[in-house]
Structures are given as C-alpha cells and as structure tokens.
Amino acid sequence: MEHNKIDTEFQDSYNDQQKWVVDSSLDSRGEIPVRARTGAWRAALFIIAIEFSERLSYFGIATSLVVYFTTILHQDLKMAVRNANYWSGVTTLMPLLGGFVADAYLGRYATVLLATIIYLMGLILLTLSWFIPGLKPCHEEMCIEPRKAHEIAFFIAIYLISIGTGGHKPSLESFGADQFEDDHPEERKMKMSYFNWWSAGLCAGVLTAVTVIVYIEDRIGWGVAGIILTVVMATSLLIFLIGTPFYRYRAPSGSPLTPMLQVFVAAIAKRHLPHPSDTSVFHELSRKEYTKGRLLSRTNNLKFLDKAAIIKNRGSENVMAEKESPWKLATVTKVEELKLLINMIPIWFFTLAFGICATQSSTFFIKQAIVMDRHIGHNFIVPPSSMFALVALSMIISLTVYERLLVPLLRRVTRDERGISILKRIGIGMVFSLITMIIAALIERKRLDYTKHHHMVMSALWLAPQFIVIGIADALSLVGLQEYFYDQVPDSMRSLGIAFYLSVIGAASFVNNLLMTVSDRLAEAISGKSWFGKDLNSSRLDRFYWMLAALTAVNICFFVIVAKRYTYKSVQSSVAVADGGDDVEMASVANTSKCT
User: Fold this and answer.
1) Cys staple from 89: which of 503, 510, 529, 534, with CB 3.0 to 4.6 Å?
2) End-to-end CA separation in angstroms for the chain
3) Helices (H) and strands (E) in the chain, counts
4) Contact (CB, 8 A) for 402 and 449
5) Residue 408: exposed, middle, or buried by beta-carbon count in 10 A (0-12, 13-18, 19+)?
6) Do 324 and 473 contact (CB within 8 A), yes or no?
7) Into which CATH architecture does domain 20-252 fall?
8) Distance between CA atoms of 76 and 145, rounded to whole angstroms?
9) Where does residue 590 rank: exposed (0-12), middle (13-18), buried (19+ CB within 10 A)?
10) In whole angstroms, what is the distance from residue 535 CA to residue 39 CA?
11) 20-252 and 339-570 agree in CATH topology
C-alpha cells in the first residue's frame, strides 16, 4: 500500500515536471510557465533572428570603418586606425555596463528591447546623414574636406550603436539560453543544439555583412546600405516583440557586487582569527535554503577570504544574530564566488595580447587590402572589407573540425569531457595569433619591396594566409574566452560573464592605440622616421607587426604560468537517479564536479 502511494506521488511529480517549468522562470503574465506553450525552439528562433540582424549591422559598419575614415572623412592612416580602435574599444567595453544592468535591475528581456531601440536610432541617424542635404558629407561630388555637420552626425550615430551593442550583446545570448530548462532531459539536449544554431546565425550575419553589405557600401553607397541595415534591424525588433508571449523570463537578482563587498568586509573584520582545520566551522546554507544558483565547494586558494565564512562563538546566542547579517558572516559559496572573480583577473590581463592581434584583422589588415590588387578576372573588384569574409569562413571551418574531429579524439586520449581544458584551448589559439603576426610582418615587408622595385601593386591574395590563420586563432581563443567567462563566473552574473569576454577585445583596442603612440615616438626618436606615415607605402607596418609578435610570445609564457596555477570552479551537484520497472527509486547523490 505504502509502495503504491510512493509510485503515485512520483508519477504526479513527474507529470508536473513535464507540464510546468520549475526553474524559477516566469511567463509573460508573471506566472509559472507551461512547458508546451513557452520557451524551447518556439522562443529561441525569435532570438536567433535578432542576433543575425545585429551582427549584420555591426560588421557591416566595423569592417568598413577604416575605409570610411580615410575615404569619406579624409583622415590619415594613423588617425583613422585610432578612431576605429576607440570605437571598437568603447563598443566592446559597454557590455560591462549593459550586463550589470541586465543582471541587477532590468532583466535580460527589457535590456535587449531598450538596447535594440537605441541601436535602431543610431542606424537611422547614420542613414539620414547621407540623405538630408545639410548632413551630407560634401556639397559636390568631389571634396577635399567633409562637412563638420556630417562628421558630428556620423560619430553620434556610431556611438549610439555602441551603446545599443552594450546592452544587446551580454543579454541576448543568455536570454536565449534561458528558454531551455537545465533539469529537463529533452530541453537540456536542445540547449546544446541552441548554441550551435546561435553560432550559425551569428556567422551568417557576419558573412552577409562583409560580402553583400560591404559591396553595396563600396559600389552603390553608404546611404543605401544604411537603409537596408535599418529595415533589417526594425524587422528583427518586430519579430522579437511578436515572440513576447512565448518567452520565459528570469527576474533580476539585484546587484551581484554587493555580496562580493560583504565577503571582503566580513573577512577584514575577522582577519585576526586563525584559519581553522575543522571545516565544520564554515557557514553554508543547505540545498533547500539556497535557491539562487548552485552551491560551490571550498577551495584552498585565497585562504584569507575563507575567514568571512567562519562562525564565531558556536553554540552561543550570538550565532543567530551573526547569521542574519551578511556583512558579518558569509556563506562558503559567496566566498568562492569572490575567489572566482579574483582568479579571473590575471587570465583576463594575459589574454589582452591576443585581443590586440585580433583587432588588426578589422583595421590594418583591411587597410593593406585597400592598396593591393583586388581584381578577380577583368571586371570584378573585391571590396577591401570583404577580405574579412576569409576570417569568418576560416572560423566556421575550424570550429567544425574542432567539434566533429578533434574533440572526440581528444576525449579518448585525455578522458576530459571537453577534450582539453578551456585555458589550454585559449593558449593554443594565442599561438596561432603569434603565427598570424609573423606572417603579416613577412608579407608586408614583401609588399613594400615589391612596390618599390616594380612600381606595381601586389595581389591581395597574399593577405589570405594572415586572414585565415587569425580565423583559426579566433575559433580557439575567442570562442574559448566566451566559454571560459560564461562558465567560470558566479551563476548570478551570466550576462556580465559575456561582457567580461567582450571587454578583452575592448581593452585591447585601447592598448593597441597606446602601443601605436609609444612605438611611433620611439621610432622617431631613434631613427628619425615614423612607423605610421600618411599612407602604407610611407609606413613601416611590418616593424609594428614584429613588435606585436614579440610581445605576444612573451605574453604566452606568462599565460602558461598563470593557467597552470588556476583553480577552476568547483560545483556541488545533486543527481537524481531513477530505475525503471515496477520499482522506482530516487537517490540523491552529492558530488563535486570540476568545470574544466
């Protein structure tokens, strides 16, 4: 009788899990979502559609920015590259603010919606600057200097796009992943496929941008390209809104920085306490009490912070009062979350060299293509920015080979679920970025010699190797960084995790500008000649590439040292096991899994 009662209760629980989504999500009415009506692919496809249009717009502008600065705004090479790097830096650092706002206050859906509207405003202004007479670049067909009004409108437009990207990028991918419940077997499998389709949509947007949109900018005009980008973004916003009833939503959890500050305060207040050998004195919530995220296991690094979780005066009346104040007593999980963020700082710093190498593909590499022969046949000329398509194609092919061939092979060899650890993957990608800089330096030197001796331009096909190799580096390091920061941040900071990965490229753009300034001044002081002239033929870009190669080589050595000492997130997991047949047994197994 008792056995039948247990079977009935388990069947009811299973039926409820199949009908309702029980991962703290809500539907558009603020109620528990019905699985058959919300989330999964019926919601995710709307989200992938808007990602396609965002990447289409971003790369349609980013890859042609140096061309725009030099041909439309008539800036010299040094100024054009600096302005492009400043914009790229701001655009990829803004997600730090957007991710914080999404996680703490607005939620991901509202942040994506607001960011897309701001993005659309930037595209509209960019388009109008080519059609309103007072904002057009020039009074006539040919002009030496553009109108000041056009410059102002153009910079306001692209920085509105930066702000829009800041809210869009860290929130949208996480919002898409929220549509699949981790504890539901079928949806968990769908979630794995979701990331593949997400990447496919992203790469489709990039390829369309650097082929179709760039060709329109080069041959028809920026105004027409702006109209297309604006219409596509407006359409995707409408599609996103149509999907509103089908989405699953997560409420913002408040500032993720406050618990970190509380750990610091509690640790400093207990700094005089000895570090205990008895782990039972550390405070932690039970699984039932802890409803936000997952419990983490205590690690042995940064032991000073462990003191924040020590329970003083055990057994006294003060214990309950102490537990009520998070400024006096932190949980082990909160301590470990702070350790995760601190441990990320050296990893973030020593991946900047990769970011600097990656920024060259959309700045100096494109500028090299401008001064080289881009003819295919007698009539067709490849737009310089379309050379970036080689990076996207190389990345797609590399990811496919890595996922389908290398990972299964490496799993058998290393017995690691990922094949190799995330940091090893990033490190290997950094080696490919070093190879890219060496190839780029050699080809640029050959181009200078060829132009000088033959008074002719080299074929742009000579640039293919550096574009292809940096694509391989991106497939390993860039995707690895995305996985690393998303996986290793606390569960309450997923949007910020995506922002941290983007900030590597943003900060690298600013550091690249600093390196250009410093190296240029040193070159002038030593040899009396600048590395960056008014055009590429009067510059020594090959020397700048050799300098980046040397810095990257030294940086890789430091990265290896830091990676070897790194401690990965250690998660306590609870696994439910059900046996088939007449008897159903539920067993809760507590274990610790290292996310490597």
Assistant:
1) 510
2) 47
3) 22, 4
4) no
5) exposed
6) no
7) Up-down Bundle (1.20)
8) 12
9) exposed
10) 53
11) yes
**Burial of 512 by CB count in 10 Å (0-12 exposed, 13-18 middle, 19+ buried)?**
buried
pLDDT in tens, 178-212: 787 766 777 766 765 576 577 767 878 888 888 88
The answer, yes or no, to whether residue 274 has pLDDT greater than 80, is yes
Q: Report, as an integer, the average pLDDT of 352-380.
A: 86
Distance, in Å, from the CA atom of 543 to the CA atom of 563, rounded to the nearest integer, reads 30
Summarised one tens digit per residue, pLDDT across range 309-327 is: 888 766 554 555 455 678 8
Cα separation, 579 vs 234, in Å, equals 51
What's the token pair of residue 352? 């900047």
Q: Which residue, among 58, 68, 133, 132, has the nearest Cα to 94 in the 3D structure?
A: 58
Domain 339-570: CATH class, spelled out: mainly alpha
- In angstroms, the CA 255 to CA 474 distance is 32
Model's pTM, two decimal places? 0.77
CA angle 502, 423, 351 (to 5 degrees): 45
Q: How far is it, in rounded angstroms, from Cα 369 to Cα 385?
A: 8
Contact 230/120 with Cβ under 8 angstroms?
yes
In this structure, the strands spanning 375-376 and 380-381 are: antiparallel
The full set of domain ranges for the chain reads 20-252, 339-570
Residue that the structure tokens 């802890």 belong to = 290
Helix (H, G, I), strand (E, B) or coil at 143: coil
Residue 183 near residue 168 (C-beta atoms within 8 A): no
Q: What is the dihedral of CA 276, 279, 282, 285, to 10 degrees?
A: 180
d(CA 176, CA 39): 9
Tell me which H or E stretch contains 577. strand 570-577
- The β-bridge partners of 575 are 589
Assess contact for 173 and 112: CB atoms under 8 A: no
Contacts of 14 (CB under 8 A, 6+ apart): none
Give the three-state DSSP class for 426. helix
Report how far residue 313's alpha carbon sits from residue 311's, in angstroms, rounded to the nearest whole number.
7
At 588, the pLDDT band (50, 70, 90 cuts) reads very low
Per residue, the 3-state secondary structure of 446-489, as one string, reads: HHHHHHHHHCCCCEHHHHHHHHHHHHHHHHHHHHHHHHHHHHHC
Which tokens belong to 279? 């782990």
| % of the chain with per-residue pLDDT over 70 | 86
Instruction: Note whether 444 and 541 are within 8 A (CB).
Output: yes
10 Å CB burial of residue 116 (0-12, 13-18, 19+) is: buried
Q: Strands (DSSP E) along 323-479, which ranges? A: 375-376, 380-381
Given pLDDT bands bounded at 50, 70 and 90, which one contains residue 356?
Answer: very high
CB 194 within 8 A of CB 176: yes
